[in-house]
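Issue 218. Parser rejects a valid record. Input:
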Amino acid sequence: MKLPPLNALRAFECAARTGSFAAAGQELSVTPAAVSLQVKNLESWLGRQLFTRRANQVRLTDAGRDYYQNAAAALGEIARFTDALTESASRRPLVISAPPALAELWLPDRIARFDVQHPDVPITLRIEAEDKDLEQQGIDLRLSYGGELPDYRTQPMFQDQLVAVAAVRCDPCQTRRVAIDWGQAITSVPGWRHWSALTGRAMASVAEISVPSVPSALALVKAGVGVALLPEQVIWAAISTGQVVRCSDAFLPMPRPYVMISAHHQARSRRLIALQNNLLEGV
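Output the parser choked on:
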């Protein structure tokens, strides 16, 4: 069976349907240049020009129109068949992969809300610190801080900020500090050194406690061990219920958003769309 490169075909179909490489790039969560390159690859593979390009506009050629009609129909049929297959397999759960902070602190209330709205949809939650190959690992939706997997669809959820919290209000510069080791894959999250620069105050020479995750840090803070810089939205339940308090009005923006990552072929899955809409509600 002689098939064109499927990523290139998908990029072509999206560009033809939306009328521009920019719009296609936005839908596929890639750059317009990446869409253009994929289309050129398909044109080379076919030996036909599919678009005429002028300034920032693209138009289908006769060959492009013919190919689009057939490609769109074929991709639509595959999507419908896949959707019917996955939707009918009611016992197959939606698999969510998330780091500890989101899985243990941010997700529970949202999964509870989703369960009320869709009690017939089973869910499997996997707590994984590192991003995974979604299709190889059978993951429907990956939640991540600033993560981006090539060839997958990435959607921002929310941008958070780090705030100093403790069991009781205290001076962060004079209190024992809890520091989070975010791992080798994340280097952009600011820490106490940045807090000192932000506030213009030196940090007291007290022993720090290093922990591997936000939930670990939050547990120590609740126990009264010290003060920690934690993502405000992620731990909002603990703040709003008074389990921890903010020790300062200052905050450090987290430079990258929390995102959700999914496979392009699942863009029409009703179950996954419902779950994504649920997670985006109120953020």
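Fixed in the parser; the record now loads. The chain has a mean pLDDT of 88.
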